[in-house]
From TrEMBL, chain A:
Protein's recorded name: Sarcosine oxidase subunit gamma
InterPro entries: SoxG (IPR007375), TrmE/GcvT-like (IPR027266)
Organism of this sequence: Oceanibaculum pacificum
From TrEMBL, chain B:
Name recorded for this polypeptide: Sarcosine oxidase subunit alpha
Tree of life domain: Bacteria
Molecular function GO labels: sarcosine oxidase activity
Species per Swiss-Prot/TrEMBL record: Oceanibaculum pacificum
Keyword Oxidoreductase: yes
Automatic annotation (TrEMBL), chain C:
Example of a GO biological process term: tetrahydrofolate metabolic process
Protein name as it appears in the record: Sarcosine oxidase subunit beta
Pfam families attached to this UniProt entry: DAO (PF01266)
Lineage, opening ranks: Bacteria, Pseudomonadati, Pseudomonadota, Alphaproteobacteria, Rhodospirillales
One of the record's GO cellular component terms: cytoplasm
Organism expressing this protein natively: Oceanibaculum pacificum
Keyword Nucleotide-binding recorded: yes
Enzyme Commission number, as recorded: 1.5.3.24
Entries under PANTHER family matching the protein: FAD-DEPENDENT OXIDOREDUCTASE DOMAIN-CONTAINING PROTEIN 1, SARCOSINE DEHYDROGENASE-RELATED
An annotated Gene Ontology molecular function: sarcosine oxidase activity
Key words of the record: Cytoplasm, FAD, Flavoprotein, FMN, Nucleotide-binding, Oxidoreductase
Residues of the Rhodanese domain: 36-79
From TrEMBL, chain D:
MF (Gene Ontology): sarcosine oxidase activity
Name under which the protein is recorded: Sarcosine oxidase subunit delta
GO terms under biological process: tetrahydrofolate metabolic process
Pfam families recorded: SoxD
Coiled-coil blocks: none
Gene3D superfamilies given in the database record: Folate-binding superfamily
């Protein structure tokens, strides 16, 4: 086994529990955008496949009217309340899904290669830069995949976490020779 | 162990190391760089297999993946592989190979009796016989199957691993010969992301085999090495050796199969996959797949020792092997002379060059003449002799027409025949891509014409022959492809190439044999033993479409897919029909290019990764407490919890009783849950459910039926109103995803005006049902902020508060008829809350119950399960649930279908209960009910048993059934005919227990 | 028609097989026929054969746009069985199976009908319930059907992965012993030869491009080889049914989808029966030549391209390798696709149409090969008598208006 | 294998999508007035053309949006994709 982080071709770790909210709203509506930006301290990413990090939360574009908001577990309830309060008179929905999804971080020089064993998205840095997010499939699991400065983060439904973990570890065998 | 037929020098083999291998039990040796075929040849072994039908002795025809004859059983036990081409097996130490399709031995094969019988069994003979007696075919078939089949399947499960890899590139280059390398260089230098794949161990294609070709005044292999080094150094280029582009699918999606460790045999590292399936989406494709030499069709052209001329050069130059001592070349073009010269220089005696052309005058024939080689112009081979290997050829002078021999034939002894009929561009992938082929009459070849996808062909596969042209086309194709993909570049300078000039061949399709054609054994498809006579027979019998010829004779249907034979077959068919070849047309090219292992295509998606197992947040508790599980779709649910010594029956009875007398606890977390939010949420539910939703009070729950537009019941569940604009819907476990998809469909496309958002929260919550007269007490013990009293917390209502100290949504609903609470908590807290309930329930002897007990409990109440009482053909009314269908709503999904003539007709199947005469007798689910059981079928069936259980509460068996006109049959006695007996049943209302519904209040 | 037999073979061997006559003639189309069958697949050819044989209507043409049997008849996995759920289907398919049992002799053409048994696996309680339901229905309809326990499955077909620890363990199976496979091409050729011998004109490379009508009834067809008249026209064009019906202004409750299949390289006999599984989505048999013939799933979108997505083949092979782990090292030799015409209820249409003299036989979807002889038989009756045979009466076009579908979807059988 | 350009997510493999069949079928909201035959037409009858086909797709393993596409069903070439509510003719040209 390698003895420095640098040498580990790929590492897989469960992400710590964090807060996750699904926000659904019409981003064409300036009032709604303003109401949300006020809470997130960052504009809502309306460009497909992008994300935006604010002070309190990172917003991941999931669809034209759907976002996944990631925040610290401690901020979860506060964030939801703040959003609901700001959006009270507008048509929007904020639903807590913190427990519905589990996250994994895949790190290391072979991270993209490992994921490409099961994910058909082009993960080359020219096509998948930091901050990009997609919903797609990893083998037989639905994933939400985000590239951060440090790693790939992927979120799967809680009941798919065991499968995903097994799949990732098994895929990594090739690099652990 | 001496390699008797190894040339003293030359070749790309590593002579410093020896590898030992066995073939049919005999030990031989070879060198790294050898294929099994070249090593066998170096050891003087030519006979390597038996043909499919006639079991004729066969040798090595080619040096590449087009090999039809030399099919080998490679390896042993669970790792054995049938039908592997010896020409593609890289030698490793300890390799074990065996010949196939022979018994008892390769030299003496009983199956060869078929060869003797061959006059009796021409193409398609089996359609004409084996018809008597009527069931006789089952006996004949057994014998026929044993004779067929080639190699053996492995003995057991595959011990190796297979991987997938998805990839994207700007330019994919298939083939790494002169053209492919040039294309990859051009595209790579332009900065495009390039993948170049070649099926061989080394890049270079034919350049590796041509000792007499120079590029930039150096041996061609030097250029290959330089090119490969440059490509390997480019970060934007992926070089894949031992990788076959096997399939060219729609939208420039290609499949590549990489053999990662096959060439290492047992020395492969454990962590590496055996093979890897690349799934490539390419912006542009360059096909550089080369050309395949065409055999000549003549009498007994299939004997071991007869091979393709360029392949012979390959064995000499690339592998340093000497396939024989006395060579006869049979050719219709100059490249046969190139082989003769190469053999001559390697010290192989050249007995004769037989040229079907009246005159051969190019530079190569002249060199051959100058070297003193004997040339027979205007001659053809008309027969060969030799039992297990060719030992002579007979030739004759061709009449000017080319279809007759003039004068007497004569023999020339030899042990090696090289034949060259010209070159067929390797257009498989191009055709797979839907590209159209053009016919080039002068040399009788099909070349790529109009293409349908973003691709270009370059080099020999594009009908180009000289290395200089192949390189030039390759560079140009690579540069253009890169440009189309958005990478500007300069046109590379042309390279100077010296090589003998080999102009295209004039076609020569069938050498007139010495014997009548029907006996002459002029093989066209070597693997499937299809002769020119078979093709003509097919045409004579009216099988005139090339597709009919293929299927009637099986030509081109072998493991080589007719790579060496299809064009010859087509030419013979065309000539027989008196039609032009392009008018007859080729058969359809289909993937894979060469056979591709199931393992690679399956990847790691087997065993534990075959299908995800979804477990609830409380699963571990169930497992730790001895639960048996059942699969429900991808979910695994606790089925029942046997105590030591209990069988299923006892356990379920205990669980069922407990749920009605004390308190039972059920993990219902798998139920689908959807948050429905928005000002139009109630209106939306009103349209997707059959009943009314507008007036449901906040904090209230209601049961709903969902139909398809065809009026049939698709799903059901309880939905609660959380707020003015907010509902929490539940669906059945199996339909959660389908319902979500369908609801989004209606919202996004049919009713975009409705302001509603949906969010699936199935997995956000653990759902725990406590059920039974003691459930209220239990709940009360664990909550201090929910008033559990009957009035304060009525049936079909919701309360939010805490349970076991955890925020919870509690809904008072019942799927059993008992007092029952459904507690929803965050999934991460599910197990803790469950454990708290178990602990607090100890005084009431709380009993966990599984899906089986749940089914019994609901059946006692006559509650349906979607997918069990329904099968896509039941309306609400059929199920006795007309009460759940609004008569006043203007619209809901499926409404119109409920008034079609068939949905309102008499005699539809209706849900009823059944009671057996013998209360101990439990009907079989799926059994059918008849009015009167007859001695013999057929019997008119009224319907079937959908659910059937022993009910410990009723101390008897109960069943639900759907019967034609069922409700009118209540009170009647009917029969259930089983294979061994007839069971009498009485039809009842479907509700067996507490018909007044008094127990739900505890 | 000169009879085929072992003696005829021997006799012809002496004459270097120069003496065989054409299996069917290649006549020029006549200007008019009593009846025209559009589509030279198994169903069309069988229809023509039975029109001639059972109804004495011999002035018949079969018009085929390409080569006989080049549609789904030539690309199916050849599974023959009759263990359908609903009475209507069971009766129709059993009618066909009975004809299969004597078909080689009837046609004097060996269609190699191999009654090696068809097994349907159950992997969970729901499967078990549904298979039992079907098995009991079959028994009461007089159709042979055994129910096998897991152990019996192992005895009958030892190759199947019977480990209880796999994701979808085998819990049992139904077995129809009279089911099996047949040589698909031979079915087309055998019917063609026998129909030809009774005077039917079989015309290949003749594409129907229009349907001629006058006052609500058909009068003929426009083809790539000219106009041909007839007062009765049967459309039997499987994947292209909507295209043909469209020519007569009729919309059908049919969608055309790619259905794929593949074969492995041939190996010595190891699999002696047909194995089908709905839950893991795999079905396989071994051909007489030794290939594993494997049916893949249906591609979910409409397409006439006779090819589908590789992902469907991948999914199929996941299942095959999971169920037959020793097949992992076998290799795919060829894959292909057909165009199947699917009905909403997974049952066929054998029906009169709103246009007088126009009849349609379609909608067999993924499973009509097995019905070839029976379908031809009852469809010939429908055309000859201008009224359905009792066996195909339930399979009319009207059922989509009334709602009286014969829904074989939920019947836990892969529809092959 | 089809690559489908989702109007939002760009090109994705076909297996990320669910096919929704023929597009632009009109579902009447007041169905009582429809005859059995008209209703059957909506429920079951399909154009099923060999050639240009306006069809529905759901990006189920992506943005979870329904959208329309025009595809040549003979060649499987995708000619256009457009969002629900947009008319086919606007994009076909
Ligand atoms: C991969 C695959 C596997 C299958 N497996 C099974 C199985 O295991 N068991 C089973 O029972 N069934 C199976 N089926 C289904 C079965 O193949 C078909 O239901 C059956 O063969 C249909 O026969 P047919 O004669 O109606 O159609 P086809 O054989 O398709 O014949 C229709 C003919 O009409 C011709 N035609 C079309 N348009 C025109 C025109 N305009 N003018 C003239 N002619 C025209 C076509 O060229 C074609 O030859 C499978 C199908 C496929 C594709
Ligand atoms: N008269 C003759 O002797 C003669 C005739 C034709 C070609 N040639 C010579 O052959 C060379 C042709 O060059 P070229 O590059 O066009 O062809 P090539 O045959 O040299 O190279 C083609 C390469 O493609 C590979 N390949 C083929 N199909 C593949 C697939 N599906 N997947 C992966 N790899 C695949 C082959 O292994 C081979 O290495 C020239 O040097 C030419 O002069 C000579
Ligand atoms: C039951 C069955 C068995 C087949 N066996 C073989 C075979 O052994 N070799 C082969 O090349 N093709 C085989 N095929 C496939 C055909 O070659 C061909 O792909 C198929 O009939 C579809 O035609 P097409 O590919 O020309 O479109 C088989 C097809 C069927 C239906
Ligand atoms: Zn999308």
């Amino acid at each position: 086994m390698a003895d420095t982080m640098q040498d580990i071709p790929v590492a897989i770790a469960a992400l710590p529990e964090n807060g996750k909210l699904i926000l659904r709203a019409d981003a064409q509506n300036a009032d709604i955008r303003a109401a949300i930006a006020g809470v997130l301290t960052a504009p809502l990413p309306v460009e497909p496949l992008t994300s935006m990090a604010g002070d309190k939360a990172t917003a991941l574009w999931l669809g034209p009217d759907e976002w996944l908001l990631l925040c610290a577990e401690a901020d979860r309830a506060g964030l939801q309340q703040a959003l609901e309060a700001n959006l009270a008179d507008l048509h929007a929905s904020v639903v807590d899904v913190s427990d519905a999804y589990s996250g994994f971080a895949v790190t290391g020089p072979k991270a993209a290669e490992l994921l490409s064993k099961g994910c058909a998205i082009d993960l080359h840095p020219v096509a998948f830069a930091e901050g990009k997010v997609v919903r797609s499939l990893l083998a037989k699991a639905d994933i939400t995949l985000l590239r951060t400065a440090a790693d790939f983060q992927l979120y799967v439904l809680r009941s798919f976490a065991a499968y995903t973990r097994l799949w990732l570890d098994d895929a990594a065998r090739e690099y652990r020779g | 162990m001496s390699q008797s037929h190894r040339l003293p020098a030359g070749g790309r083999i590593d002579r410093s190391r020896s590898l030992s291998f066995t073939f049919d039990g005999t030990r031989y040796s070879g060198h790294p760089g050898d294929t099994l075929a070249s090593a066998l040849i170096a050891n003087g072994v030519h006979l390597v297999g038996r043909s499919f039908k006639y079991h004729r002795p066969r040798g090595i025809l080619t040096a590449g993946s087009e090999e039809p004859n030399a099919l080998i059983q490679l390896g042993l036990g669970n790792r054995t592989e049938p039908n592997i081409r010896a020409t593609q097996i890289e030698l490793y130490d300890g390799l074990t190979a065996a010949s196939q399709n022979r018994f008892p031995s390769l030299e003496f094969d009983l199956g060869a009796v078929n060869d003797t019988l061959s006059p009796l069994i021409p193409a398609g003979f089996y359609y004409k016989t084996f018809m008597w007696p009527q069931r006789g075919w089952m006996t004949y078939e057994r014998a026929i199957r044993r004779m067929a089949g080639l190699g053996r399947a492995p003995d057991g499960p595959d011990p190796d691993r297979y991987e997938y890899r998805h990839a994207h590139c700007d330019v994919l280059v298939a083939g790494g010969g002169a053209a492919g390398l040039a294309a990859a260089l051009a595209a790579g230098r332009a900065g495009a992301r390039v993948i170049i794949a070649d099926e061989q161990a080394e890049m270079g294609g034919w350049l590796l085999s041509e000792g007499d070709t120079e590029i930039s005044a150096k041996p061609a292999v030097d250029w290959v090495e330089k090119a490969v080094t440059e490509l390997a150094g480019m970060e934007n280029v992926t070089l894949l050796r031992r990788t076959t582009a096997f399939g060219y699918y729609d939208h420039n999606w290609l499949g590549l199969a990489e053999r990662v460790t096959d060439h290492l045999g047992p020395y492969a590292a454990d962590h590496l996959p055996r093979q890897r399936l690349w799934q490539v989406r390419a912006k542009q494709v360059v096909l550089a797949t080369g050309a395949i030499e065409r055999p000549l069709v003549f009498g007994q052209n299939d004997r071991p020792g007869i091979m393709l001329a360029a392949s012979l050069r390959s064995y000499i130059s690339r592998y340093g092997a000497r396939p024989g001592k006395a060579l006869v070349v049979f050719t219709n073009n100059d490249s046969g002379y190139r082989t003769a010269l190469a053999a001559h220089h390697a010290g192989i005696g050249v007995a004769a060059i037989i040229d079907s052309r009246a005159e051969a005058s190019g530079p190569l024939p002249q060199s051959a003449r100058a070297a003193g080689l004997r040339i027979y112009e205007g001659h053809a081979i008309i027969a060969t002799t030799g039992r297990l290997r060719v030992d002579s050829v007979r030739l004759g002078r061709l009449a000017a027409s080319g279809d007759r021999i003039e004068g007497a034939g004569f023999g020339i002894p030899c042990d090696l025949v090289a034949m060259s009929g010209g070159w067929n561009p390797n257009v498989s992938l191009f055709s797979q891509s839907r590209g159209k082929l053009d016919f080039r009459a002068e040399d009788g070849v099909f070349v790529p014409g109009q293409s349908f996808q973003p691709l270009r062909s370059a080099g020999a596969c594009n009908g180009v022959l000289s290395t200089a042209d192949c390189l030039a086309e390759g560079f140009a194709a690579g540069a253009e492809a890169a440009r189309e993909a958005g990478f500007a570049n300069r046109k590379p300078a042309a390279l100077k190439v010296t090589e003998p000039d080999c102009p295209a061949a004039a076609p020569f399709w069938l050498a007139p044999p010495e014997k009548p054609l029907a006996r002459a054994k002029c093989f066209v498809d070597f693997q499937n033993d299809v002769t020119a006579a078979d093709l003509k027979l097919a045409v004579r019998e009216g099988f005139q479409s090339v597709e009919h010829v293929k299927r009637y004779t099986t030509t081109g249907m072998g493991t080589d897919q007719g790579r060496t034979s299809n064009v010859n077959a087509l030419a013979i068919v065309s000539a027989t029909l008196g039609m032009e070849m392009p008018a007859v047309g080729t058969t359809t090219f289909r993937p894979p290019y060469t056979p591709t292992s199931f393992g690679a295509i399956a990847g790691r998606n087997i065993g534990a990764l075959f299908d995800p197992v979804r477990r609830t947040p409380i699963h571990e508790w169930h497992a730790a407490h001895g639960a048996k599980f059942e699969n429900v779709g991808q979910w695994v649910r606790a089925w029942y919890y046997p105590k030591p010594g209990e069988d299923m029956h006892a356990a379920v009875n205990r669980e069922v009783k407990a749920a009605r007398t004390g308190v039972g606890i059920l993990d219902a977390s798998t139920l689908g849950k959807i948050m429905v939010k928005g000002p139009d949420a109630a209106e939306f539910l009103n349209r997707v459910y059959t009943n009314s939703w507008l007036k449901l009070g906040i904090g209230k729950a209601r049961y709903g039926l969902m139909l398809g537009e065809d009026g049939m019941v698709r799903d059901d569940g309880v939905t609660v109103r959380l707020g003015e604009d907010r509902f929490l819907m539940s669906t059945t476990t199996g339909n959660a995803a389908t319902v979500m998809t369908s609801l989004e469909d209606y919202l996004q496309t049919e009713w975009p005006e409705l302001k509603v958002y949906l969010t699936s929260v199935t997995e956000q919550y653990a759902t725990i049902t406590i059920n039974g007269p003691k459930s209220r007490e239990l709940l009360a013990a664990l909550t201090d902020d929910i008033d559990t009293g009957n009035e304060a917390f009525p049936h079909m209502s919701l309360r939010e508060g805490t349970v076991a100290g955890v925020p919870a949504r509690v809904i008072r609903i019942s799927f059993t008829g008992e007092l029952s609470f459904e507690i929803n908590v965050r999934a991460s807290q599910g197990k803790a809350v469950w454990e708290a309930l178990i602990e607090a329930g100890a005084p009431f002897d709380i009993t966990p119950y599984g899906t089986e007990a749940m089914h019994v409990l609901r059946a006692e109440k006559g509650f349906i399960i979607v997918g069990q009482e329904t099968d896509g053909s039941m309306t609400p009314d059929d199920l006795g649930m007309g009460w759940a269908v609004s008569k006043v709503k203007p619209d809901f999904v499926g409404k119109r279908s409920l008034t079609r003539s068939d949905t309102v007709r008499e005699g539809r199947k209706q849900l009823v209960g059944l009671l057996t005469e013998d209360p101990k007798e439990v009907l079989e689910e799926g059994a059918h009910v008849v009015q009167v059981a007859l001695q013999q079928p057929p019997m008119a069936m009224l319907g079937h048993v959908t659910s059937s259980y022993y009910s410990p509460n009723l101390e008897r068996s109960i069943a639900l059934a759907v019967l034609k006109g069922g409700r009118a049959l209540i009170g009647k006695t009917l029969s259930v005919p089983m294979p061994d007996k007839v069971i009498k049943v009485t039809v009842t209302e479907p509700v067996f227990f507490d018909p007044k519904g008094e127990r739900a209040n505890g | 028609m000169r009879r085929y037999s072992i003696l005829a073979l021997a006799r012809n061997a002496l004459g270097y097989h120069e003496g065989w006559e054409r299996a069917w003639r290649a006549p020029e189309p006549k200007p008019e026929y009593d009846a025209i069958i559009v589509g030279g697949g198994g169903h069309g050819l069988a229809t023509a054969y039975y029109l001639a044989k059972e109804h004495g209507i011999t002035n018949v043409a079969v018009l085929e746009k390409g080569w006989l049997g080049g549609g789904n008849t030539g690309r199916n996995t050849t599974i023959v069985r009759s263990n359908y759920l609903w009475d209507e289907s069971a009766a129709l398919y059993e009618h066909s199976l009975k004809i299969w049992e004597g078909l080689s002799q009837e046609l004097n053409y060996n269609v190699m009908f191999s009654q090696r048994g068809v097994m349907n696996l159950a992997h969970n309680l729901h499967d078990l319930r549904e298979l039992k339901r079907r098995a009991h229905a079959n028994r009461l309809n007089g159709i042979d059907c055994d129910f096998l326990s897991r152990e019996q499955v192992g005895e009958y077909c030892p190759l199947i992965n019977l480990s209880p620890d796999i994701r979808h363990p085998v819990l049992g199976a139904t077995l129809q012993r009279r089911g099996g496979v047949a040589r698909h091409d031979a079915v087309a050729w055998g019917f063609a030869r026998a129909a030809d011998a009774r005077g039917v004109d079989i015309i290949q490379n003749c594409e129907v491009t229009g349907i001629l009508r006058e006052g609500g009834r058909v009068t003929g067809v426009e083809t790539s080889r000219g106009t041909i008249r007839a007062k009765k026209i049967g459309l039997v064009t499987a994947g292209h049914s909507s295209v043909l019906a469209g020519m007569a202004g009729i919309r059908l409750p049919v969608e055309s989808h790619p259905l794929q299949a593949l074969v492995s390289e041939p190996v010595k006999p190891i699999l002696d029966t047909v194995v089908m599984s709905n839950t893991v989505h795999a079905y396989v048999s071994q051909s007489d030549k030794g290939e594993m013939v494997i049916g893949a799933g249906i591609d979910p979108y409409v397409s006439y391209s006779q090819r589908g997505g590789f992902n469907v083949v991948q999914d199929t092979l996941h299942a095959i390798v999971e169920m037959f782990p020793m097949f992992s090292r076998l290799r795919m030799l060829r894959q292909w696709g057909g165009i199947v015409d699917t009905c909403p209820d997974a049952s066929p249409i054998l029906s009169k149409t709103p246009i007088e003299g126009l009849y349609i036989n379609c909608g067999w979807g993924t499973g009509g090969f097995k019905a070839t002889p029976g379908s031809g038989h009852v469809f010939a009756h429908t055309i000859a008598r201008d009224e359905p045979h009792p066996l195909n009466a339930p399979f009319s076009l009207e059922r989509f208006t009334t709602g009286r579908l014969v829904d074989e979807h939920g019947a836990a059988a892969v529809a092959h | 294998m089809l690559t489908i350009p989702c109007p939002w997510c760009g090109e994705r493999d076909v297996h990320e999508f669910r096919s929704g069949g023929e597009a632009h079928l009109k579902r009447e909201s007041r169905t009582d007035n429809l005859s059995d035959a008209e209703w059957a037409d909506f429920l079951f009858l399909r154009a099923n053309p060999k050639g240009e086909h306006a069809e529905r797709w759901y990006h189920v393993h992506g943005c979870r949006r329904w959208f329309n596409a025009v595809r040549n069903t003979h060649t499987d070439t995708i000619l256009a994709v457009y969002k629900p509510g947009e008319a086919k003719s606007e994009v076909s040209q």
